[in-house]
Design a protein that fits this description.
By secondary structure, the protein is mainly beta. The chain has four helices and 30 strands.
């Protein structure tokens, strides 16, 4: 390849909102290879990306007529780097002849750094990629230099075109999960809405995830692969009256990850932008147009690109507990609670974001359903679950063994409100917050938290735990159940979470 160390910037396939797309020299193939009896043709190109390379670099591939399958393999070097310096990591994906426009129709798959090779034909595709005809035109292999060492990143990409007609030559019609299961009518349903399989960087198959979800006592799950929808059609035969499977995506940008929860099957949400590009609002709207919820994931995670930078104006909820409880989750809950305080002090129209918890499980021994979100919904359907989550009628638990109820009563005439609701009583009315919890380990504590902070903590015990207040003193109250603090922890350091609720709001406003 010419100009190995130089990227040629072109605006011919410019990404919306960007000045241009860094594009390498085009890989070409003889247009008569298939008709001349050659079953396959391979080209290998190499080059080096410098430190500070663009987020995505495009390698155009001219695909002539008669191609049955396109296969791509790649490698890159991993030189030693000084302590505290990021080494090389490079993702890969592909767009077809329809182009690379942001949010456009050309997307055909993404595997990030989970695979070193993939193939696409009409009949089948490597997990993470979408089967379909290999039509003639300019395809684009996408290199995503996630991190680049000071020495640069030397890469090699091998593209193979296989000619001829396969036995069927037809793309299977995708079979997507139904959007309703039998359920129990209006009830509390348990779900895990952040999961990965072999269709991105997970190790479990969809069948393995479904089995783990049933073992965890879940009623529904959402498939959320990194930057691809290929898993949406991978669940045939795995759903049932006891398990609803929703489709979605973990939109994995360089400035944070967002769970597109419950989007229409087959709908792809683009990820190729940063906060500075001002594009996130457009794709948040796209998620909602596709019937999904916008849920920033693990906002304080420390992995490169995981920390949330887009703000929360376009969010519908926020994932405050991700996998086994860690200091990252403690920070997320504290930040969420601060937003909650601001919402009740912000005057009319101020909004709050419900809290969710998900496992983000990728492989054994990560536990599907640790944690899980328990939502009050009218039935076990995508629409009902979405409405329950958006309204905040939900709480989070470390397992299905944990049972919880939480409500606030008072103000006369039997007034009461549950999680995510408002108890509309006068500011000076005495109200009682009541928590019942079971199925938790020994020595756990329960705490009632308000906009003034934690105001009551006691040991978990049988029967109801009660605390009295007034709306003038507490604009909301929510409950936390925690394990004992770890031995040797700093004085006053809270223990890991067992369960937590969204708030009950107090007062007439």
């Amino acid at each position: 390849m010419r100009r190995r160390d130089l990227l040629r910037v072109t605006t011919a396939t410019a990404v919306a909102g960007a000045a241009g797309v860094p594009t390498l020299d085009t890989v070409t193939f003889a247009r008569d290879a298939g008709t001349a009896g050659t079953p396959a043709v391979t080209r290998t190109v190499s080059g080096r990306l410098p430190a500070g390379a663009p987020d995505y670099v495009y390698l155009p591939v001219e695909v002539p007529p008669g191609v049955r399958e396109i296969a791509v393999a790649y490698t890159y070097d991993r030189p030693a780097v000084p302590a505290g310096t990021q080494g090389n990591a490079c993702d890969i994906g592909i767009f077809d002849e329809r182009g690379t426009a942001l949010g456009g129709a050309g997307f055909r798959g993404w595997s990030g750094g989970a695979r070193t090779e993939f193939a696409i034909s009409a009949e089948r595709a490597t997990p993470g990629y979408l089967p379909g005809p290999v039509r003639p035109g300019t395809w684009h292999v996408v290199l995503g230099p996630y991190t680049v060492a000071p020495q640069g990143l030397a890469y090699e990409v091998t593209v193979t075109l296989r000619y001829g007609t396969a036995p069927s030559g037809a793309t299977p019609r995708p079979v997507y999960p139904p959007q309703r299961a039998r359920g129990r009518g209006r009830a509390w349903y348990r779900g895990d809405n952040h999961l990965h399989s072999v269709h991105s960087d997970g190790k479990r198959t969809p069948a393995g995830i479904a089995a783990a979800a049933r073992a965890a006592g879940l009623d529904w799950i959402t498939t959320t692969e990194h930057n691809t929808t290929s898993a949406h059609a991978a669940w045939e035969g795995l759903w049932g009256d006891d398990l609803l499977i929703l489709t979605g995506e973990e939109v994995t940008t360089r400035n944070g990850h967002v769970v597109a929860l419950g989007t229409d099957p087959g709908v792809f949400i683009d990820w190729r932008y940063r906060a500075r590009d001002g594009a996130f609002g457009r794709f948040a709207r796209r998620i909602r147009q596709a019937g999904g919820l916008v849920v920033p994931a693990h906002p304080y995670a420390t992995c490169v690109g995981c920390n949330w930078k887009f703000g929360f104006e376009d969010a519908d909820a926020v994932e405050v507990w991700n996998g086994p409880y860690t200091p990252d989750d403690e920070m997320a809950i504290a930040a969420w609670d601060a937003m909650l305080v601001a919402s009740v002090r912000g005057g009319p129209g101020a909004r709050w974001l419900p809290a969710l918890g998900n496992s983000d499980a990728h492989r054994e021994p990560q536990v599907v359903g640790l944690p899980q979100t328990v939502v009050l919904a009218d039935d076990l359907s995508r629409e009902a679950l979405r409405e329950g989550l958006r309204a905040g009628r939900s709480w989070i638990a470390e397992s299905s063994a944990v049972r919880l109820s939480f409500e606030v009563t008072g103000g006369g005439r039997g007034a009461h409100a549950g999680i995510g609701e408002r108890l509309r009583v006068p500011a000076d009315a005495e109200v009682t917050a009541r928590l019942k919890v079971s199925g938790v380990p020994e020595n756990c504590t329960a705490t009632f938290v308000t906009d003034q902070g934690p105001l009551f903590t006691t040991a978990v015990r049988a029967g109801a735990i009660e605390w009295r207040t007034t709306p003038s003193y507490a604009a909301y109250v929510r409950a936390e159940v925690r394990h004992p603090a770890a031995d040797g922890g700093a004085p006053g350091t809270p223990g890991p979470m067992v369960a937590m609720t969204n708030p009950v709001f107090l007062g007439e406003r």
